[in-house]
Design brief:
Strands 1, 2, 3, 7, 8, 9, 10, 20 and 21 form a 9-stranded mixed beta sheet that branches. This protein has a 4-stranded antiparallel beta sheet with strand order 14-15-17-16. The longest helix has 18 residues. It is built from 16 helices and 21 strands. It starts with a helix and ends with a helix. Helix 1 crosses helix 9, helix 2 packs parallel to helix 16 and helix 4 packs antiparallel against helix 5. The chain folds into 2 domains: 362 residues, 3-Layer(bba) Sandwich (FAD/NAD(P)-binding domain), CATH 3.50.50.60; 122 residues, Succinate dehydrogenase/fumarate reductase flavoprotein, catalytic domain (Flavocytochrome C3, Chain A, domain 1). Bound molecules: flavin-adenine dinucleotide. The site of flavin-adenine dinucleotide (FAD) has 45 residues, from helix 2, strand 8 and helix 16.
Amino acid sequence: MADAVETSAPIEPRAASDVKGWEAEADVVIVGYGCAGASAAIAARESGVDVLIVERTGAGGGASSMAGGEIYLGGGTPVQKACGFDDTPQAMFDFLMAATGPGPNEAKLSVYCDKSVEHFEWLVECGVVFKPTFYAAPCWEPPTDDGLVYTGGENAWPFSEIAPPAPRGHIPQMQNKRLMEKSGGWMLMKHLSATAEGAGASVMTDARVAKLVVDAGGRVVGTIARRFGEEIAIRARRGVILASGGFAANPDMVSRHAPRIAGQMVLGTDGDDGTSIRLGQGLGAAVAHLEASEAALPSVPSLVYPSLLVNEHGQRFINEDTYCGRIGQAAVFHQQAKCSLVLDEEIFESVPEADRWGARPTWVCATVEELEAEMGLPSGALQATVELYNRHAADGHDPVFHKRPEYLRPLKSPYGGVQLTGLPYAVFTLGGLVTTVNGEVVGPGGLPIQGLFAAGRATSGIPSWGYASGTSLGDGTFFGRRAGWAAAAVPG
Ligand SMILES: Cc1cc2nc3c(=O)[nH]c(=O)nc-3n(C[C@H](O)[C@H](O)[C@H](O)COP(=O)(O)OP(=O)(O)OC[C@H]3O[C@@H](n4cnc5c(N)ncnc54)[C@H](O)[C@@H]3O)c2cc1C
């Protein structure tokens, strides 16, 4: 318990009067070199101030460079238009208001949607290429170099009734992807890093920021980092931008703030240890939605969509044809991560073996009654679920969860069940520092903390609670830029 307090507690700042001298300085000092930090650096350089990115690893990239690269953009981007999809900022806003709640951040969503096409153009100016082709099959991320995909269940119930659907997952073009290792996120970071450094941003690697430095008036004027066993003080003449990621890799913070995801698979790096959040808290910063997390269902969408997903009571709990990250959140937060897929041989065989990611039926039975018994479900429960589903699926309807007709078909013998309970959900945290639309960290009394800004998964942003893939890279790059402009505008 003592450790828990030590590693999840706010980090108190150091007084500037206790700093003997500055080993480095810049107008804007950025903590962390992922997509948020790189975008902030580019924006601050656009404003003509000097920038130092301080990165704890040897090269930066962070979780951003591991990502699939889906960036949530819309409102009528050239790629959407080329692929034949109509979209508007209003439709994008309406979808995100519904999908990212409870507690969506209306102010951030409004500016994010209004300026999404401009943000797309900025990414293109940074060298990111988006191939104007659409990948239609259900997937986590396209294995191809296609540039557009559905990533949030926009075309599935209930969202299809809330806002005109459009795909908004934009992916940097890349050949020979290695999913979850070197994919679109790596390509995004390649271009953002080249742009930031090409514009003159300096990078100090192998330096782990451990403290903020504040002057007598409470304004943030620098950081203290550990580098090769030494402590160094870095002065920030205008501002410090915290962009060191979320806290999924800090077990103490997870058990304290997001216990539902404790023990699940961390989708990120060791740097996701919550340092930025704790540094902000040390100055009284407000935090929001710390319990929220992305949670990827441990299965593949092409198998899940046409199947039934049942909880430990043998009951469906969501339409299976929606975004599998949404399904994962429903399973983790509302079903104790206990669920199974129920399918038939035809569904299983319809997905090529290479695309099943190793999934195999745990149980195979001639009747639903037998399957139910094998799965240890209450007698009659699964039979009732399948009977109801099959009866309406035969007419192309799903009156309970409104699955689209294209994924509806009565299941038939032989039946199978795939045990998902006990498999790891890939998670990263969504909650963090409360920031204004300009990246200012909100402190006591709701006022910005002078000299302190933040962006990316260190903050609570576009994915306040509900997640759509692409909202993390989208939010990190978009609000990273705004934090960069705002920090650069502080009088030096
Ligand atoms: C496999 C995978 C796939 C994903 N796919 C997608 C996707 O397709 N679309 C999407 O939107 N999101 C995706 N995500 C999530 C997304 O990648 C992250 O949420 C996002 O990149 C966070 O960006 P960031 O800039 O806040 O943090 P990061 O990219 O993690 O950057 C933070 C940086 O700060 C550094 N750092 C940490 N602590 C310190 C310190 N004390 N001092 C100095 N530096 C420090 C870290 O080393 C790191 O380089 C995926 C994540 C993973 C792992």
